[in-house]
Design a protein that fits this description.
The protein has one domain: Rossmann fold (3-Layer(aba) Sandwich), CATH 3.40.50.2000. With about 190 residues, it is mostly helical. The protein has 10 helices and 5 strands, in the order H-H-H-E-H-E-H-E-H-E-H-E-H-H-H.
Length: about 190
């Protein structure tokens, strides 16, 4: 079936817990992402999806959102999250500050190409070939990166392959178990 992301989401009656609007407002740059969807700044043809069950009143955020921004304010069960990530052209995490992110690792597991702010542990993920970085708080860099990647299928495919590789090789349970065993062996010898 060849359906749009909107149609995929609409097929599900439940929704997504991978991200909530309160977290977006606190740690992300909604004003910068929204700015990229205003006339003159918007990446032509792009849609921004803000998905998750909010724990706050989102009326002001929704009122400030320009055309092309969609809110899916509901819970999405874990079994449906990967399908939604696989339908996305990019997962964009423009955090202000963060060490790591469950959403990031969910996107990696789904093989979704990423655009990340250069904060916390995100540069490590980009170094693994799974993401491109933008400076935090830079709407022009974010817009330019989104426009370039949305127009370049091959670049997105390279990032998707890097995401799948990172999810299995570096961040997969086998790799984590090997690292822990090696650490325990070093501690036991000390």
């Amino acid at each position: 079936m060849n359906e749009t992301l909107s149609e995929t989401i609409d097929r599900y009656n439940d929704a997504w817990n991978a991200q909530d609007v309160e977290t977006i407002a606190r740690y992300h740059h909604p004003e910068i992402v929204f700015q990229n969807h205003t006339a003159g700044e918007r990446v032509e043809g792009a849609e921004l999806w803000v998905v998750g069950m909010p724990r706050m009143d989102t009326r002001a955020l929704r009122a400030a959102a320009p055309p092309g921004v969609r809110f899916v304010e509901r819970f999405v069960p874990d079994g449906q999250v990967a399908a939604l990530f696989r339908r996305a052209d990019l997962a964009v995490l423009p955090y202000r500050e963060i060490d790591q992110s469950g959403v990031l690792f969910t996107a990696l597991g789904a093989g979704t190409p990423l655009v990340l702010s250069a904060v916390g542990g995100f540069p490590e993920v980009a170094a693994a070939g799974a993401a491109e970085l933008v400076p935090p708080g830079d709407p022009v860099a974010l817009r330019d990166t989104l426009a370039r990647l949305l127009a370049d299928t091959a670049a997105r495919e390279r990032l998707a392959a890097g995401a799948r590789r990172a999810a299995t090789e570096r961040y997969g349970w086998d790799a984590i178990a090997r690292a822990h065993l090696a650490l325990y062996e070093r501690v036991a010898r000390a």
